[in-house]
Specification:
alpha+beta, four-stranded antiparallel beta sheet, globular, 6 helices
Amino acid sequence: MTRYVALLRGVNVGTTRLAMADLRRIVTDLGHEDVKTYLQSGNVAFGSTVRDAEKLAAGIERALTDELALTVPVLVRSGRELAAIAGGNPYADREDDPTRLLVAFLATAPKKSAVDALTVPGGENVSFTVTGREVFLHYVEGGYGRSKFTNAYLEKKLGVVATSRNWKSVRALAELTGS
């Protein structure tokens, strides 16, 4: 049994509403075990014998559509992947405020040309590192809430679906997977 986290994009932050009890039920009904949600923003940890993260994501997406008429992108990471992310943040030693550190999880690794062309909007003090299917973000001044370097910006510039979590959430999700 492998532990995973499914990260739902855009849940309970805009018009897409999803009760975490419904999310737990759906993931449990798909045959996964020890299902736990974290916060109200579409994070669910679970155990599964399925070894294919894309298949897991597609199953959750389909169930959300079939049962609740929600079209929500779902990204899945294993506990091992989350442990590597939690231990590999290049900015973790520079910042004590976990709200200034974020990770944008990407559905797929972006093209090298898109990564090479990625820049911070003028006048903002944001550092970023793209590593595979993650973008580590450090909002040196201000914060994510006032920045133009957002999840939507990353999606547009990198050409892939993304969903972002702050550092406190990333660490908590790593703990939920036993990482």
